[in-house]
Design brief:
Oligomer: single chain
Keywords: Membrane, Transmembrane, Transmembrane helix
CATH architecture of the largest domain: Orthogonal Bundle
CATH superfamily of the largest domain: Hypothetical protein af1432
CATH topology of the largest domain: Hypothetical protein af1432
CATH class of the largest domain: Mainly Alpha
GO molecular function, one term: phosphoric diester hydrolase activity
Pfam families: HD_5, MASE10
Radius of gyration: 40 Å
Protein name: HD domain-containing protein
Shape: rod-shaped
Organism: Neptunomonas marina
Helix content: over 70%
Structural class: mainly alpha
Strand content: under 5%
Largest sheet: none
Number of strands: 0
């Protein structure tokens, strides 16, 4: 109406009734078209949404223009202005709805942990901005031009009937109204794009933050076939490759640990199964202690896994003990036992040197604590430092019970294998003197697990006492 004098000549009923009917039909058609859009692949929905909404506005404009031409005999000039107005309005609304569709697809992909397929040829963001800015410029300039043209014609027809100041006020008011309406739609689209951009960047930030904290099982939703989609895909590929490399490093570390620990055990009269059993005992105890409020914060899943992985290094210091002492079949003399006790410090020193050269981390720290303190006793009578109570690191207190239990139920050159019941009674006697009372309680709570581990990873040879006194709880 602001740009066409023919529309301005209609009564409100003649003007708005066809518009209301056409938009009602458009809304009904859009209801069915939306179902069609939602059945399309996710990668096509934004594009189809934009084209469909723009097409519906053009159809609505064509219907209105045809109606005015047939009923009121409006000229082609009026028809063109109606089509231009509907094109501008449809473009802005289609852009806004397409952006909202893009946002909902991103949320859907995030919830389902899926991604859009990417194509090598995508619509660059720079071109989107260029086209949108050009469309906005043409829309504002074009509509303002039509308004000015209409107002000039109006001035020609009115002549001196209306004061020039009044005409100026009317013209400026019309221009302000048109520019405000167009800029309102432009602002709505800018806000919609900012919302989507903020969401895409938040996906990226959340994933990278979790990666920085050590979690490599994260996924950035690929929610658009543009630069942001390709950045998300590249991020996912980088995280996947990092996870593979990390897994390889962990495997290499575990193999090296097991090989080093096995080398230490082969110099002793113990078997390689001792390494496996003790690390499982430690994990069983730690998982039980985690249920206690006093230990819940310290024994996270990550720490328990590190305890499990570092436990095999508890006797790595035995590589520094002479064979004459390490392999002696009888009881050690006091001097020999003094040398034997050095294996805890030897192992800790070796791991400390590794920390100094390679850099400290949680794994090496726990391994060093286990090696150094697994022979410490709760009452301070252990070695090498004579620590007492909670001054003994938790890792060492856990390994102390696991190591003693396995030594008791295993055959040695100086003793037969004890039954579970006998080993249990010895551990109970050491509650509060040799062992941390809380860890003894955890042992009692996981007694069945200890028996199962001992059976699953039993030595190949069994003794007569093992056969006659099977590992069963009391």
């Amino acid at each position: 109406m602001q740009v066409c004098p023919f529309l301005d000549s209609l009564t409100p009923l003649q003007l708005f009734l066809p518009i209301l009917l056409v938009f009602a039909g458009k809304s009904l058609a859009r209801h069915y078209v939306t179902r069609y859009i939602e059945r399309r692949p996710l990668a096509e929905q934004v594009r189809v949404q934009f084209k469909t909404d723009l097409g519906l506005f053009l159809i609505a404009g064509a219907v209105l223009a045809s109606y005015n031409s047939i009923v009121y005999s409006f000229p082609l000039e009026s028809t063109g202005k109606v089509m231009i107005g509907m094109l501008v309005l449809g473009f802005f609304i289609a852009c806004d709805l397409a952006l909202y569709r893009e946002y909902t697809i991103a949320e859907q992909l995030r919830a389902s942990q899926q991604s859009l397929p990417l194509s090598a040829s995508h619509f660059p963001i720079s071109r989107k901005f260029t086209l949108f800015a050009s469309a906005c410029a043409f829309a504002v300039v074009g509509v303002v031009f039509l308004v000015i043209n209409k107002d000039l014609e109006w001035l020609i027809h009115t002549g001196d009937k209306i004061p020039l100041s009044t005409s100026q006020r009317y013209i400026l008011t019309e221009i302000f109204f048109i520019v405000a309406a167009v800029m309102g739609y432009v602002l709505a689209i800018i806000l919609g794009y900012s919302r989507n951009l903020k969401r895409f960047l938040s996906f990226q930030h959340e994933a990278l933050s979790q990666v920085a904290e050590g979690s490599l099982d994260v996924h950035v939703p690929v929610a658009s076939n543009d630069e942001f989609g390709h950045i998300a895909a590249s991020t996912n590929a980088t995280i996947a490759k990092l996870a593979d490399r990390t897994q390889e490093l962990h495997k290499t570390r575990d193999v090296s640990i097991l090989g080093l620990a096995t080398l230490a055990e082969t110099r002793d009269n113990e078997t390689g199964a001792h390494i496996i059993r003790t690390q499982h005992y430690v994990r069983a105890l730690a998982n039980q202690l985690k249920t206690e409020p006093a230990f819940a914060e310290q024994l996270t899943d990550e720490v328990i896994d590190l305890l499990y992985k570092s436990a095999p290094l508890h006797d790595v210091g035995k590589v520094g003990i002479p064979d004459a002492i390490l392999l002696k079949p009888g009881k050690l003399t006091d001097d020999e036992f003094a040398i034997m006790k050095q294996h805890a410090q030897i192992g800790a020193d070796a791991l400390w040197k590794a920390e100094q050269q390679l850099g400290s981390n949680s794994f090496l720290r726990l391994a060093r604590e286990i090696s150094l303190t697994h022979h410490e006793k709760w009452d301070g009578s252990g070695y090498p430092q004579g620590l007492t109570g909670n001054d003994i690191p938790l890792a060492g207190r856990l390994m102390a019970l696991a190591d003693v239990y396995d030594a008791l139920i295993s055959k040695r050159v100086y003793k037969p294998a004890f039954s579970h019941d006998k080993a249990k009674s010895i551990i109970l006697e050491g509650r509060g003197s040799h062992f941390d009372p809380a860890i003894v309680d955890a042992f009692l709570a996981t007694e069945a697990d200890f028996i199962s581990i001992a059976k699953t990873y039993a030595d190949t040879e069994t003794t007569e006492e093992e056969t006659s006194a099977p590992l069963q709880p009391a």
